[in-house]
Amino acid sequence: ETGVTQTPRHLVMGMTNKKSLKCEQHLGHNAMYWYKQSAKKPLELMFVYSLEERVENNSVPSRFSPECPNSSHLFLHLHTLQPEDSALYLCASSQDLGAGGGSTDTQYFGPGTRLTVL
Amino acid sequence: QKEVEQDPGPLSVPEGAIVSLNCTYSNSAFQYFMWYRQYSRKGPELLMYTYSSGNKEDGRFTAQVDKSSKYISLFIRDSQPSDSATYLCAMSGPRMDSSYKLIFGSGTRLLVRP
Q: Which residues contact B77 (CB under 8 A, 6 or more apart)?
């Protein structure tokens, strides 16, 4: 596997379920990100980890719980979600934290997990 | 008012046309400007990056930033059907310690007809 991979690619869950999204990067990067992409809305930054430490929690509800056990893996644990949480959840990684245009801070995105909450 | 405004399209052009994609923004402190391309069922990929004002060219793509007007553009010359995708503008700044906080437009869907 190369780049940034995400599993599962599709997930349907009820409001009372607990599930987890997994992201793995094979690029040797130090920073990882979770974004939410809703239909016809801009990507929203949710969480940022740098060297396995959370550096950003962008006012995300507590029903979303991130975990970064090592620099290659990032999880998003989901519980008691709402239908409005249905969206594409994208993971990204970069060599370093930055604006995303330099050689070391370009953010590389995975294909996303399409989440539907019933 | 959204921080970044982008026409959602869709924009349909014939193959070979010059395409112009645009974003306006309200925060004069933005310093870093990016264009991402997102194909269907894929994540975004960085196309162009510009720091502050000016133009940048890469092959068929040219990015322009006009900070005085708070307006950025992406031009695609000799457009190809393979350019059909959603184009997202993104920006951030000014502080280096938070420049990773990208603010995205909602994306413009482009369709290049053969």
A: B18, B60, B61, B62
Question: Which residues face A79 on adjacent strands?
Answer: A18
At which residue do the structure tokens 């933005």 appear? B30
Handedness of CA A61, B94, B96, A3 (dihedral sign): positive
Chain B positions touching A4 (Cβ under 8 A) are: 43
**Structure confidence by residue, pLDDT tens digits, B7-59:** 988 999 999 999 999 999 999 888 889 999 999 989 999 999 888 888 999 99
Q: Residue A4 corresponds to which amino acid?
A: V
pLDDT, tens only, A43-58: 999 999 998 899 888 8
Q: Is B29 on the interface with A (CB under 8 A)?
A: no
Q: What 3-state DSSP class applies to B8?
A: coil
CB of B98 closer than 8 Å to CB of B112: no
* CA–CA separation, A15 and A85 (whole Å): 10
Report how far residue B108's alpha carbon sits from residue B13's, in angstroms, rounded to the nearest whole number.
Answer: 13
Q: Does B105 touch chain A (CB under 8 A)?
A: yes
State the nearest Cα–Cα gap between B38 and chain A, in angstroms.
10
Provide, as residue numbers in chain B, all residues whose Cβ is less than 8 Å from the Cβ of A97: 99-100
Distance from C-alpha of B88 to C-alpha of B47, rounded to nearest angstrom: 10
